[in-house]
Amino acid sequence: MLLCYVFFGCIGFVLLLYCLLELHYFLRTLACIVWAKLSKKKVYILDETRVAGICLTTDIDNLLNHMNNARYIRELDFAKIDFNERTGLYHQIKKNGGAIVLGATTIRYRRFIKLFSRYYITTKIIYWDDQNIYMEHRFVTPADGFVNAVVLCKTRLTNCNADQIITDLMVNSSQCDLETAKSQKPEVPVELAKWIESNEISSALLRKS
Q1: I need a labelling partner for 133 at 20 to 30 A (CA). Which of 20, 41, 47, 163 fits?
Q2: The domain 45-208: what is its CATH number?
Q3: β-strand partners of 118
Q4: How confident is the model over 143-163, as a mean pLDDT?
Q5: What is the 3-state secondary structure (H, E, C) of 3-36?
Q6: Which residues form the signal peptide (predicted)?
Q7: What is the domain partition of the chain in residue ranges?
Q8: Residue 23: which pLDDT band, with cuts at 50, 70 and 90?
Q9: Mean pLDDT: which of 7-11, 16-20, 60-64 is highest?
């Protein structure tokens, strides 16, 4: 009888957690951190990372046949965790007393990811300035290499200098010296420059109002 009470008590506790929290999201976050730390090799800060995914029944929209539009953004959380852990980016930011705030995101959908279809997400840094790091993510179908969606994310760093963080990671990787690191900073892509301009216009309008 006591075992029955314990069993049903545990079941009830788990159900309560699911009601109060999106429990599987936090469990998956923990799993991503552990997997990136223990099972994957370190990555140079300017290299591209890749994580695999599959569209499950928990990901689909009300048409019941392809991934919900909002789910793309949610999946990026796990891609970013993998990138930040493997490159050492998050550790370097915390080491310098900084923090991360998502400043803006834009996504362009090109083709549905259908139910039970496999995909992978690529993540790479495409530009940075003193305050922000800009990343590009792509949802790609493995079978034909088709890019289903492209996402631009602006990550704002607080209490630290983004340019210094990236430079330190480049130098600490032993792949380059300070001068070489500075020369590796890419030019801002045209589409990103236009997006940054759009965000600045939006901010100016909001300040006026």
Answers
A1: 41
A2: 3.10.129.10
A3: 54
A4: 96
A5: HHHHHHHHHHHHHHHHHHCCHHHHHHHHHHHHHH
A6: none
A7: 45-208
A8: confident
A9: 60-64
Tokens 């996504």 belong to residue: 107
pLDDT, mean of residues 18-35: 82
Cα Dmax for the chain: 71
Residues 88-138 pLDDT 10s: 999 999 999 999 999 999 999 999 999 999 999 999 999 999 999 999 999
Task: Give me the sheet containing 49-54, strands edge to edge.
Answer: 49-54, 118-128, 132-140, 147-158, 99-109
Contact 94, 46 (CB under 8 A): no
Interatomic CA distance for residues 202 and 112, integer angstroms = 29
**CA dist., res. 5 & res. 60, Å (int):** 36
Burial of 114 (0-12, 13-18, 19+ CB in 10 A): middle
CA atoms within 13 A on the CB side of 83: 23
- pTM, full prediction: 0.89
